Amino acid sequence: MRYQNATAYRFLAPYLLIFSIFWLWPIISSFLISFQATRTVPWRFAPTFNWGRLIGDPAFFNALKNTLLILVIQVPVMITLAIVMAVLLNSPLLKARGLFRFAFFAPVVVGEVAYSAVFRLMFNLDYGIINKLLNSVGLPRIDWFSNVTPAMAVIMIAVSWRWAGYNAIILLAGLQSIPQDVYEAATLDRVSKLKQFFYITLPLLKPIIVFCAVLSIIGTMQLFTEPFLITERGGPGGGTETLGLLLYRQGFKSLNFGYASAIAYTMAGLAIAISLVQLWLTRDPK
Amino acid sequence: MAAVTLKNVVKRFGVFEIVHGANIDVNDGEFVVFVGPSGCGKSTLLRMIAGLEDISGGEIAIGGKLVNDVEPADRGIAMVFQSYALYPHMSVEQNLSFGLRMNGNPKADTERRVKRAAEILRIAELMKRRPRQLSGGQRQRVAIGRAIVREPQVFLFDEPLSNLDAELRVQMRVEISRLHKELGVTMIYVTHDQTEAMTLADRIVVLNAGNIEQIGAPLDLYDDPANRFVAGFVGSPKMNFLAAQVVGNDGNATVVELANHGGARLRKPLSGAPPAVGAEVVLGVRPEHFFEAGEGDCDIAVKADVAEHLGSVSYIYANAGPEELIIEREASRQRATGDHMVVSIKAGQSLLFDKSGARIR
């Protein structure tokens, strides 16, 4: 038995080694770094230096506010959209199902830089298709990237476009696992399709919806690409700066690794806390 | 309560015809069982009555009203599914009342109906539980309860006991029988288990490959099957089929020679025209219709291969050339494996079929 265990660990060793060096050690190391003042040479142990700064830093609270705002608006909208897409994909009336499934999933595999560039072009003040469309229906064009609210809207639209299809595919798997005869029983009970959706589909899909929501919460807490590339480093004037972007700015522009580590742990802690609250709120009654 | 009438009902899936013109009259308050092997179209027929499958041709009437284009919920039927189809996220009580609540049925009436169903099925103490907290038998009771609260004219059961173990199946069979007596409503029940069909039905509809082979009371089908398929399907263990050839006709009787039993001959009186001399036929003998040597009209020698002793009776699986026969014996006369034995066939307790399987009477 012991010999078999040793063999198993020898096979696991390459993975465990790589995991330890590139995952485990950075996790521990960054936690230790968050208690050090890293703008001095050599670094010195100062337990309250970064964490104390965090509590009083307006840039941190601005980034936190922006991140939570995106989370509160974008995640529910995207999940709702994903549910609608999944239901459409699951409909027996839909033709060319494979094509739609591919189309919904495709944004995930598009390169982040490429899609960000396309979104910048689409929302361009003078040449963007969005403003052209607004003009064509008699609405004034919007300067998407010079004002905070439209810039936030662009980020939310972009993130939703990229991830709604991905969530829809996960939800579709959930939909397909609901037995057909449950719907047949409801049909015999004279329950309309709409009521079937709200009273049968949604409750039975709840564990999958919660799973998608938790994934999205974690993703949004780490949001970086869109505010970095689409709204040009959290612009205008930090109006779309997220925690991920603040971390990058502190860690890799200012080389303040201690503070960046404290921000990273705050992001992780928030993601875990919000996810736990979400799981608790949507738990199954005993 | 209502009668159910099927006239030339056809079902096609694309180019494949699954049900080829079914004609069935189910009387008001009758318990009719559709029985047949897998894929014979029995469940499809039931689902067409329920309205869950479209009809490709023919007419279905419930309570004298044509329901071809009537929505399932408006047909006055309730269905119990093989997989129970309970709403997993609802308690038993919510499962029972869901349909009524969704349709704005008065609360007091809903409560009355749910209470009555719970009392009939003895599930009152389970009302707060979720389906996953119930045993298979309890789930099936809830599924039947959900049908009862609808107070339907016709109950439809789609293989409701096939997911239960043998003991529970017997118990639920009795319960369904009791329910039919208590409610007195029309019930149509689909099963592939001929024992269920025999024990539950007022009348059985035997289906095979989308065709109705015979409709009749259980014992009528057992004693007087229309063809070899029905003779083989109804009865457990199955009827034995012995290859034979007509060697002569003698007035209103035919004489057949058993092909695998050393030239043993049986003179079988017939009411109709006898088959031609030389025709290949099949003699059907039920396991309990093999008698002790000399007691019947034709003796055959067999070698006991395997014996199953069930207590009250024993079943002897015996070989005679290429034919394997199942012979029923009283327990006191049980045989050991390897015994040579001689059994006797009575002309009056055997059936004759032609090569196509049609009965020769």
UniProtKB/TrEMBL annotation, chain A:
It comes from Mesorhizobium escarrei. It is found in: Cell membrane. Belongs to the binding-protein-dependent transport system permease family. This is Lactose transport system permease protein LacF. The lineage of its organism: Bacteria, Pseudomonadati, Pseudomonadota, Alphaproteobacteria, Hyphomicrobiales. The keyword Transport applies. Residues 64-278 form the ABC transmembrane type-1 domain. The keyword Membrane applies. Keywords: Cell membrane, Membrane, Transmembrane, Transmembrane helix, Transport. The chain crosses the membrane at residues 12-35, 68-90, 102-123, 151-175, 196-218, 257-281. It is a multi-pass membrane protein. Its main location: membrane. CDD domains: TM_PBP2.
From TrEMBL, chain B:
CDD domains: ABC_MalK_N. Residues 4-234 form the ABC transporter domain. Keywords: ATP-binding, Cell inner membrane, Cell membrane, Membrane, Nucleotide-binding, Transport. The keyword Cell inner membrane applies. PROSITE patterns: ABC_TRANSPORTER_1, ABC_TRANSPORTER_2. Transmembrane segments: none annotated. It comes from the Bacteria. SUPFAM superfamilies: MOP-like, P-loop containing nucleoside triphosphate hydrolases. It holds the Pfam family ABC_tran. InterPro entries: AAA+_ATPase (IPR003593), ABC_transporter-like_ATP-bd (IPR003439), ABC_transporter-like_CS (IPR017871), ABC_transpr_MalK-like (IPR015855), ABC_transpr_MalK/UgpC-like (IPR047641), Mo/tungstate-bd_C_term_dom (IPR008995), NA-bd_OB-fold (IPR012340), OB_MalK-like (IPR040582). Signal peptide: none annotated. Belongs to the ABC transporter superfamily. This is Maltose ABC transporter ATP binding subunit. It comes from Mesorhizobium escarrei. The gene is malK.
